[in-house]
Design goal:
This protein is an alpha/beta fold. It has helices at 5-14, 70-81, 93-103, 116-131, 194-204, 229-240, 259-264, 290-293, 310-325, 328-349, 375-380, 384-395, 416-440; strands at 37-41, 44-47, 52-55, 109-113, 135-139, 152-154, 171-173, 186-189, 208-213, 243-247, 270-273, 284-288, 355-359, 362-366, 398-399, 408-409. It has two domains: 36-67 and 327-440, Aspartate Aminotransferase, domain 1, CATH 3.90.1150.10; 70-325, Type I PLP-dependent aspartate aminotransferase-like (Major domain) (Aspartate Aminotransferase, domain 2), CATH 3.40.640. The structure holds pyridoxal-5'-phosphate. Pyridoxal-5'-phosphate (PLP) is lined by residues 60, 115-117, 120, 143-145, 214, 218-219, 247, 249-250, 274.
C-alpha cells in the first residue's frame, strides 16, 4: 500500500473541479506525489495519510515562528471576532505600519496588500509614476510574483546548454497570455555582474524607472549578493534618478528584524514585504521613502477590498510584536548554523564537497566547493544527486523542496532533535542515491 494513498485519492478527486488538482502550479508534484496537508504545528506538517514531515519549505517562507503559532492565532481570533473587512480603515493597521517603519531601515511610510505579487506590482507602478519613466531592470534567477510585468525570464539554456549573451540576454515571457508589447519595458541582466550593470545603466539609465532586486536570490538557491553588489545598485540609482526597489518578500522579517536592508546596510528607495510578515496569514506591504510613498493617493492608484483587513492585520501585529521583542530571529540564525554544520558533517563523511549560499534562516547547500554566484552558474551545475536525495528525504519525513532553487527555510520552532533527525535522514538518503548511482556505472 502506498504511503500517500489518501493524497492520491484526493488528487484524483480534486482534478474534477480544480485544474491539475492544485491552486498553485508549483504544488503539483505529479499524480503519485501531489500532497494534501491535513495540518501543521510548529516545525511539522502532517499529510492526509498522517505522515509527519519536518518542514523546511514552510509555505515557501512565510512560517517564521512555526506553523499555527498560538500567540499569532490568538491575536487573529481576537481580531476576527470583531469583524473582518469594513470598507473603512481599522484600528490595527496603524500599529502594524508603525512597527514596520520602526523595524525596517529605509521605510518611512507603508501601504498594505494581500500578496507579494500585489506588493511588487504596486511598487513598480509607484516607481514609474514617480520617475515618469517606464522601463526597469531585474536580474536573472529572480522571481517577483505572477503579474505580467515581471513574468519574464532570459534564455540561459536550461537543458540545452545554450546561454544567451550576458551583455544582451534574450528575454521571453514565462507564461502564455503575457502581452509581448510589455517585454520592451524590461531588461534582465546577470546577478552580481557589476560591470555589466554599470555599462547598461550608463546606456539607458535615463529611461529607467526602477531596478528591482532580490537582495538574496531567494528563488535561485539563495545566491548571495557579492560584496559591493547592492551598494553599486544604490550608487547607479542615485546617479540616474532610478528608484531602487528591494524585493524583501523572502528576506524581510527573516534574515534580520529589518531584513536585508539592515543586514547588508544598503537602503532601497522602496521595499516589498509579504511572507514572514504574517507567519502564514495572507498579508503584504510596500513601503519606502516618504517623498515617493506620498505619491500614493496623489494620482497614483492603490487599494483593494481586502487590503489591510482586520484578520491579516491581527496576524501581522502579533508576528511583528514577537519578532521585535524576542530573540526569535537570533534563535533561527543559530539553529540554521547548527543545521549547516550537521549537513556539512554528513557530506564530509560521504567524501563529498560542500558549500552554502544565502543566510542560515534561508540557505542552500551545494555538492560543490563553491556556491554559484549567479543563475547561469546554477544552470551549469549537476543537480541530479541533490534532487534525488531530497526526494528520498521527503519519503523519510524531512521536507526541503526537491529543487535547489528553493532555499531551506527555518522557523523558530526547529529543535536540536529535529536537526539531528534531519542529518540522519540526509545520511540515509545520500547512501541510497549514491548506491543507485554506483550500481548504474
Ligand atoms: C522575492 C519574491 N517576490 C515576490 C513573490 C510573490 O509573492 P506571492 O507568491 O505572495 O504573490 C515571491 C514569491 O515567492 C518572491 O519570492
Amino acid at each position: 500500500m502506498t504511503r500517500l494513498k489518501k493524497s492520491i485519492e484526493y488528487h484524483k478527486s480534486a482534478l474534477k473541479s480544480i485544474p491539475l488538482g492544485v491552486n498553485s502550479n508549483f504544488r503539483y508534484w505529479g499524480p503519485e506525489d501531489t500532497l494534501y496537508i491535513s495540518h501543521g504545528k510548529g516545525t511539522y506538517i502532517w499529510d492526509v495519510d498522517e505522515n509527519r514531515y519536518i518542514d523546511y519549505r514552510l509555505g515557501w517562507g512565510p512560517i517564521i515562528l512555526g506553523h499555527s503559532d498560538d500567540r499569532v492565532d490568538e491575536a487573529v481570533y481576537t481580531a476576527m471576532r470583531r469583524g473582518q473587512t469594513f470598507a473603512f480603515s481599522n484600528t490595527l493597521e496603524q500599529q502594524v505600519a508603525e512597527k514596520i517603519v520602526q523595524m525596517c531601515p529605509g521605510v518611512d511610510k507603508v501601504r498594505f496588500a494581500n500578496s507579494g505579487t500585489e506588493a511588487t506590482m504596486h511598487a513598480l507602478r509607484l516607481a514609474r509614476a514617480y520617475t515618469g519613466r517606464e522601463k526597469f531592470i531585474m536580474f536573472e534567477g529572480q522571481y517577483h510574483g505572477l503579474h505580467d510585468y515581471v513574468m519574464f525570464s532570459t534564455n540561459v539554456g536550461e537543458g540545452d546548454g545554450y546561454n544567451s549573451n550576458r551583455r544582451s540576454p534574450v528575454i521571453f515571457p514565462m507564461s502564455s497570455g503575457i502581452p509581448h508589447q510589455i517585454q520592451e519595458l524590461v531588461l534582465i541582466l546577470p546577478f552580481n555582474d557589476l560591470e555589466n550593470l554599470e555599462r547598461v545603466v550608463k546606456q539607458s539609465g535615463h529611461e529607467l524607472a526602477a531596478i528591482l532586486v532580490e537582495p538574496i536570490l531567494g528563488n535561485a538557491g539563495g545566491i548571495t549578493p557579492a560584496k559591493d553588489w547592492l551598494s553599486t545598485i544604490r550608487k547607479v540609482c542615485d546617479q540616474y534618478g532610478i528608484v531602487m526597489i528591494m524585493d524583501e518578500i523572502k528576506t524581510g522579517f527573516r534574515i534580520a528584524k529589518g531584513g536585508a536592508q539592515e543586514y547588508y546596510g544598503v537602503k532601497g528607495d522602496l521595499a516589498t514585504y509579504a511572507k514572514a510578515l504574517g507567519n502564514g496569514y495572507p498579508v503584504a506591504a510596500f513601503g519606502g521613502k516618504k517623498e515617493i510613498m506620498d505619491q500614493v493617493g496623489q494620482g497614483v492608484a492603490h487599494g483593494g477590498t481586502f487590503t489591510a483587513n482586520h484578520v491579516s492585520m491581527g496576524a501581522a501585529n502579533a508576528t511583528l510584536d514577537i519578532l521585535m521583542n524576542t530573540d526569535a530571529l537570533a534563535i533561527i540564525e543559530k539553529q540554521g548554523q547548527k543545521l549547516q554544520e550537521a549537513i556539512a558533517g554528513v557530506l564530509k563523511s560521504a567524501g563529498l564537497p560542500c558549500s552554502f549560499s544565502g543566510h542560515p534562516a534561508m540557505f542552500m547547500f551545494w555538492l560543490a566547493d563553491k556556491a554559484p554566484k549567479e543563475y547561469r552558474e546554477w544552470i551549469e551545475m549537476d543537480h541530479d544527486i541533490y534532487n534525488n536525495v531530497t526526494f528520498e528525504m521527503f519519503k523519510r519525513g524531512v521536507m526541503p523542496e526537491p529543487d535547489s532553487r528553493e532555499p531551506w527555510f527555518l522557523c523558530a520552532s526547529l529543535s536540536d532533535e529535529d536537526i539531528a533527525k534531519t542529518a540522519t535522514v540526509l545520511e540515509d538518503s545520500l547512501k541510497v542515491v549514491l548506491a543507485k548511482n554506483n550500481a548504474r556505472k
